[in-house]
Every structure is written in C-alpha cells, then in structure tokens.
Amino acid sequence: MEVIANLIHDVLPTTDQMNLEFVREYCLSKKGVTEDMPFDDEVLVFRIGGKIFALCDISNFESINLKCDPERAIELREQFNGITPGYHMNKKHWNTVASRGDVPDDLFLELIDHSYTLVFQSLTKKQRDELK
Question: Structure pTM?
Fold first, then answer.
C-alpha cells in the first residue's frame, strides 16, 4: 500500500477541491476497506468485503466512479453536470462524479458514503458481522 501512496503523492493536484490523497484517506478510514489496482497501474479500486464501491484514475484524478441507488442516480444526474452515468460501469447502478465543478464537496463525500453503504449492505450477514 505504500507503493500506492507514493504513486498518488506524485500526481497530487494542487486545488482546494477534492484531491486524490484526501479521497483515498477518506475511503480507507471506513471500516474494512481495502485498496488495490487490479486493472492496471492507473486505476485505484476501493473495496469492502472484496466488492468494489469506488474506483478512480490516479494519474488524472478528475472523477470517481461510485455505486448509487438507481432512482437517486437519475435525480443526481439531472441536478449536477458533474454527475454522469458511470464510465465503463453499469450505468443504472454507477455514477461518475467529477472532483471539480458543480458537485459540492459535502455531497461528493456523502456519495462515497452512500456507495460504501450500498455495497456493505449487499454483503452476506456473516461478512457484515466480521466487519463490525
């Protein structure tokens, strides 16, 4: 994981809005979260119970893909230009949320929480109990 942290530090954006290092720390602060790079050395994945709840590009952190309740996903896409159907994901269940633009930081973090909760709730009772 130190390797991932070093890769991220090297590409850290200089902005007051959401940045990769903050988002990474926020995701990893949640109970039971792991990170890995299963696709290539550019896409960072966050998991709970082995299931993905967030993923993003570390060399060009412009957005993050997050799981979302389908009805809420539609509402959010109508309200914010920075929330679009999930890039390379099931468009019904995933949103791509821009790290810069019209999505407020508090909503950005709340959507990470929402994604984490949806995936946590999809785990078996045994898996959930092990993570509590």
Answer: 0.86
